Amino acid sequence: MFKTVLFPIDQSREAREAADVVTNVVQKYGSRLILLSVVEESSPDESSADPMVSPEAVAKLLRDAQALFSQQGISSEIVEKQGKPAFTICDVADEIGADLIIMGCRGLGLTEEGATDSVTTRVINLSPCPVLIVP
User: Fold this and answer.
1) Could you tell me the pLDDT band of residue 11, with boundaries at 50, 70 and 90?
2) What's the mean pLDDT when you consider all of the chain?
3) Minimal CA–CA distance to 133: which of 97, 88, 87, 101?
4) CA–CA distance, 12 with 54 (Å, rounded to integer)
5) 37 vs 53, 70, 78, 111, CA distance in Å?
6) What pLDDT, on a 0 to 100 scale, did the predictor assign at position 36?
7) Can you give the chain as a three-state secondary structure string?
8) Please, what is the Cα angle at 94 between 98 and 69, to 5 degrees?
9) In angstroms, rounded to a whole number, what is the distance separating the alpha carbons of residues 54 and 119?
């Protein structure tokens, strides 16, 4: 049913919690697992305090996640891209023919603006395949 699962990860607690669900789904369906992390584009006037703009930090995050899944007997492939996270996640899902995207729910807040601006909300609206959000 879910031949290819895309798991976009960042350094959030929600992404770490979603890893358990990813493990269960991939083991149950014998899925191909693709780990994706996006190096966010920053404008020259923005400070680089966000670790997700560092290619080195993203590469380490992906290697650590791959090792975590390997300990569970799950092989995975790593994809690192640069761009706007929601659009990049959906583009990669389309490119690899993903049957499911699993991601943690990490909104910007409870306000109407926060809900519409979250990466999760954008992925749900743009995704070429079903999206499983882990609260």
Assistant:
1) confident
2) 87
3) 101
4) 15
5) 11, 18, 8, 26
6) 96
7) CCCEEEEECCCCHHHHHHHHHHHHHHHHHCCEEEEEEEEECCCCCCCCCCHHHCHHHHHHHHHHHHHHHHHCCCCEEEEEEEECHHHHHHHHHHHHCCCEEEEECCCCCCCHHHHHHCHHHHHHHHCCCCEEEEC
8) 35
9) 19
pTM of the model: 0.87
Partners of 100 in the β-ladder: 5
Q: Measured between alpha carbons, how far is 93 from 10 in angstroms, rounded to an integer?
A: 16
For Cα atoms 23, 84, 120, give the angle at the middle one, nearest 5 degrees: 45
Report pLDDT digits (tens) over 46-71: 555 555 567 888 889 999 999 999 99
Burial class (CB in 10 A: 0-12, 13-18, 19+), 6: buried
For residues 93-115, one letter each, b for 16 or more C-beta atoms within 10 angstroms of the residue's C-beta and e for the rest, the string is beebebbbbbbbbeeeeeeeeee
Token code pair at residue 80? 């690192």
Distance between start and end Cα atoms, the chain: 23
